[in-house]
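Bumping with the actual sequence this time:
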Amino acid sequence: MDLPVAAETFLDSRLPTRAAIARGWSQQASTVPLTDNVSQVSSSYDRIGRSFERLLALDLTSQPCYTSALACLPAAEVEHLLFALGYQSPATADARFADWRHDRPRTNNPPPLDHSCFESAFLLDWAYEFQDRSPTLTNTQIAQLLETTGVRTTAGPVISGLTIAWKQYCELGWAAWARLGNPVYADVVLSPTGRRADLVAGSTLIDVKVTRHTEESHAKMWLDQVLFYLFRDVDDRYKLDRLGVYLGWTGQLLTVTVDEVLAHLVDDRAASHELRADFYAVIKDDEEEQKRWRDAARRP
């Protein structure tokens, strides 16, 4: 996500030494080398990242998220994916899967998944994108687009990437996620313009990254993105006290407490609600312009 210029200016003026946090994240990230097979993934990085985010969210939440997009996929494929992740269906489940519940205890490791599960995560991300771009499309229309536009034929690189990221999650990442606690929320709206954070687990906001880049400049972008979400949670709805990123290729969870972030403030206006008010005052015009642009783009 590209931050508004006003947001970057705000962070630079109020938290000018936050680069120390990003430097620490970069150093942590570089301690775990990429596996050899990551180098074989040569395309579709953004789609791999978003599809992995969907898959991760479905595994961590107590009931299915993205239910509207799930309803665009063939029911048998969704059922296979949910059963594989440890969900149980009610006696009378509707086609939106909203009544399914995650039956696997959080103390149990996530299961291995087959290629069809990864393909379903890939299709789920496409359905989500179609709905976001064109809200007037019906589920039936989106289902037809998934089958008639050749989307499935492009799944190969994404399936390869998801296979690697899921293996790292099972072997390394899952235990760190389990320590964050419950509840887990996915696709968290923290801005009137519809900007969404990936996941909130307990009181920790996490953005999911699938990238080879761990340089400090990239870590600073990760940090600024989660800070944007923190300050846009105007009503402090989620009582966030920690921020972080999850690196899919290495299974690392990098976090920092909100108190550690606020220690980098250059003034005494450190109360969380005051920072949020100051931040919104600075980016209000940009947020309103973004909302107008999104609304216009989504008109039929």
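The tokens above came from a reply further down the thread. The chain has two domains: 1-34+181-300, 43-179.
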